[in-house]
């Protein structure tokens, strides 16, 4: 299983809860998502990011199909202008 992890820092942290809801709405709308978890930061430290997204996919092709799915692209159009920074790690689950 391929695990896709994205951490996000928003220009305004108040956008994080709405982003979490929009991300959760992808479940069922995008068949290439095997699982999806979203977490919001609770400490607010200077090193913290505001949100973490973890999705699971059967392979890189399925991840690519998720990333190019119209529902994901629509979400990205809303999300990306609100981001100050993001980082991604894709890894294989042991």
Characterise the protein shown here:
- This protein has helices at 16-24, 60-68, 70-79; strands at residues 2-10, 35-40, 51-57, 83-92.
- The protein is an alpha+beta fold.
- It has a 4-stranded antiparallel beta sheet.
- The model has no long low-confidence stretch (mean pLDDT 97).
Order of helices and strands: EHEEHHE
Please work out how many helical segments DSSP would assign. Answer: 3
Structural class: alpha+beta
Radius of gyration (Å): 13 Å
Give the strand tally.
Answer: 4
Strand adjacency order, main sheet: 2-3-1-4
Low-confidence stretches: none
* Strand percentage: 25-35%
Helix content: 25-40%
Categorize the overall geometry: globular
Q: Quote the average pLDDT.
A: 97
What is the terminal separation in angstroms?
8 Å
Biggest sheet descriptor: 4 strands, antiparallel
Topology:
Elements: E1 2-10, H1 16-24, E2 35-40, E3 51-57, H2 60-68, H3 70-79, E4 83-92
Antiparallel strand pairs: 1-3, 1-4, 2-3
Summarize the structure.
The chain is an alpha+beta fold and 94 residues long. Helix content is 30%, strand content 34%.
Which key terms come to mind for this protein?
94 residues, alpha+beta, four-stranded antiparallel sheet, 3 helices
């Amino acid at each position: 299983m391929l695990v896709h992890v994205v951490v996000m820092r928003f220009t305004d942290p108040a956008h994080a809860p709405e982003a979490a809801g929009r991300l959760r709405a992808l479940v069922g709308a995008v068949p290439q998502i095997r699982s999806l978890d979203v977490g919001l930061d609770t400490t607010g430290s200077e090193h913290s990011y505001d949100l973490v997204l973890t999705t699971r996919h059967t392979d890189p092709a399925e991840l690519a199909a998720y990333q190019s799915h119209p529902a994901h692209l629509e979400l990205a159009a809303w999300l990306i202008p609100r981001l100050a920074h993001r980082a991604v790690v894709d890894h294989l689950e042991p």
